[in-house]
Design goal:
6 helices, three-stranded antiparallel sheet, mainly alpha, 169 residues, 3 strands
């Protein structure tokens, strides 16, 4: 019975998240659009709820959502800063680039956290996560040498670990 309750609560949380996202992105609030959103969200939630919510209890979910929301805001600011930095490099007539590959071994445990970290690196202009091997070693391409240093100094890895309760900042 506990498995059924977990499954139902996971399904409901997934459905509500998808429906909220649909309403946010659609911008249309008439019956037809909301009905399509409900149908699509129900179908996708039914198929993927066990992928979205993978915990025994969802009591810690609000804290995780809050931490992730703070991280998204912080990461958005980092993206803006990196965009300005890359624009300065590209617009400089001397084009001072020094591309290089670096290897980084993060102290991250969960697959979800390593995925968020890798995607965050890729979303930040000037850096690209090329691969993550089976030992969780990341191969990162940087447009300029200082981009890797900026990445490490920003504390992105610690912030991702904090979201998933793998460490405190």
């Amino acid at each position: 019975m506990e498995k059924t309750n977990k499954s139902i609560s996971g399904f409901l949380v997934t459905f509500l998240a998808l429906m909220g996202f649909w309403l946010l992105l659609s911008g249309y609030y008439d019956f037809a659009h909301i009905f399509m959103g409900v149908i699509a969200s129900l179908l996708i939630a039914y198929i993927t709820h066990d992928l979205f919510i993978r915990r025994r209890d969802i009591t810690g979910l609000p804290t995780e959502i809050f931490r992730f929301s703070r991280y998204i805001l912080w990461h958005f600011i980092q993206i803006v800063k990196a965009n300005i930095n890359v624009a300065k490099i590209v617009l400089n007539p001397e084009l001072p680039i020094s591309p290089k590959f670096v290897k980084h071994s993060p102290e991250i445990e969960s697959d979800m956290a390593i995925t968020v970290f890798g995607n965050s690196i890729t979303l930040t202009p000037g850096t690209l996560t090329v691969s993550i091997d089976e030992n969780r070693e990341m191969h990162i391409h940087c447009l300029a040498e200082h981009h890797y240093d900026d990445l490490v100094e920003s504390g992105m890895e610690d912030r991702v670990r904090h979201i998933f309760r793998e460490g405190d900042r």
